Every structure is written in structure tokens, then in C-alpha cells.
Give the backbone structure.
Amino acid sequence: MEALSPARLYAWREQLTPEARALARSLPIDEPVDLMDGYARPLCLSLAAMVTGISRGDAEAFHERAQRISASAAEPYDSALRDSAKSASTELRGYFQSGPEALRDSGFVALSQTMPCILGNAWFGLLQFPQVWSLLHRQPGLMEQAIEELLRYAGLVRILSRTATTDIDLNGAFIRRGERIILRIVAANRDPQRFSHPNRVDVARRDAGHLTLGAGPHACVAANLIRMAAVAITHPLVQGFAAANLSRPIDWQGGSGFRSPKSLSVCLTIAEEESRIGNRE
């Protein structure tokens, strides 16, 4: 609780926001740019260093090991990836011997590797609804609502597995103790009985209860950190550019655990009136 307190989240946001704004301003206009390598990954690596208390140089040095761990989480049934991740975890753990458990090696992997994947999925969802990007450009105050909706619509985790600890009859389905249950999070977040028009991105949505970051006692311990980072990184991008259009097909990565864009090549444009103001200046 102390490691991820509101005061700490505020301090990290104050550090991350100007860096995101500066990087967003440096992105080219009307030319293809990969939002993953050119924007998401550098900022998330910087955030990972910030939160875990290591230098940016160390963060870059640890990147390859963290990448191996993330690849195994994306495809948990691949034994070769699992062995590689186990080795990488052992190596990485030695560098994070102090500080809160959530902010050690697992926190570094989550922020440097998983966070860009979350952003890539959210931005891909946003690109499918250009009118929503336009709305957020004009009304940036809606960003927090929009991030929550994008987490529902384009959340990262596809499935989770659980083992039944007792016999249970769940809505007519009898599950025996010890049986393995597959939870399809991606399907639950698009359940038409729970969400009206579930295949749309609607920033005014009032349907609550998506499972992207878990729920109840199984909620993600860093849920508020993820929300803060998603807003802080996405806000300058959408505020600075009136529209974004894919410049080539998505290059996907991952597997049954989660999938995300390996690259997200887009052309960013600014509004005509903003272009005129820039020319006058």
C-alpha cells in the first residue's frame, strides 16, 4: 500500500508527463512512425526505471532479460520460452534485492514489457474508432474515461487459468475439485449481457465491471499505477495530433496468454487550424 500510495503515483506522474509531452512533440507529422518503438517502449522503460529505483542505463541493460520473461507470459504453453524465462528471472532477481516485492524484478518486467503491450492494444482499439480519437483531441478531459473503456475493449490478457479448490455447481455447470478452469477474460469483457454494444468503443459508457485488471481480492496490485501511466502517456499523443491512421498492417506478437502489436506504424496529422497557427509562429 505504501509502495503504490497516491503520493507516489502523483510524483511518478509529475516525472513521466513532461517526458511524454516532449517525446510526443518530437514525433513526425504526416510520415510513418512506429508508436511502439518510437513512443511507448522508451517511456515505459523510463517509468520502469523510475518506479523500481534503478538508472536508465541499468534499465536498458535489463531489457533483454525482461523481454524473455514477457514472451513466456504471452505464450505460457511454450516450454522453450518457459525455460528461457526461468533463467532470465533468476538472473534479473539478483539485481533487485531490496525494496517492496511489487517493485522489484516483477515490477520492472511489468512496466518495461507488459505496459507497452497494454498501450499498443489500447491504441489499436482507438485507431479503429477515429471519431473517438477526434473527440479526445477536442475534449482531453475525457481521457480517464476513455482509458477505462479501452482497457475493457482491448485489454491485454486473453485467458487465465484457475484450479477448483472444492466441488461447485456454477450456473448448472458442475466443476469438481482439482479441475482446471480456463477463464476467457477477452470474452467476458465483450459479454453482451453485461455491456451494451460491447464491440464499440464508447467513452461515455456507464456499464462497469470489466476484468482486464482483475476484480475483488484478485485485482491487480498495480491497477492504479497502470491507469495513471496509460493516461499520462496517451494524453500528449492524442492532444498533440488530431488524427492517426495506420500506414501498414499490424505486426502482432504473443500467443494464448496475450497478444499485442509488435509494431504500430501510423501517420499522425494535426488539424488544419493548428497547422495555420504553427506557420504563423
About this structure: The two ends are 47 Å apart (CA to CA). DSSP finds ten helices and nine strands in the chain.
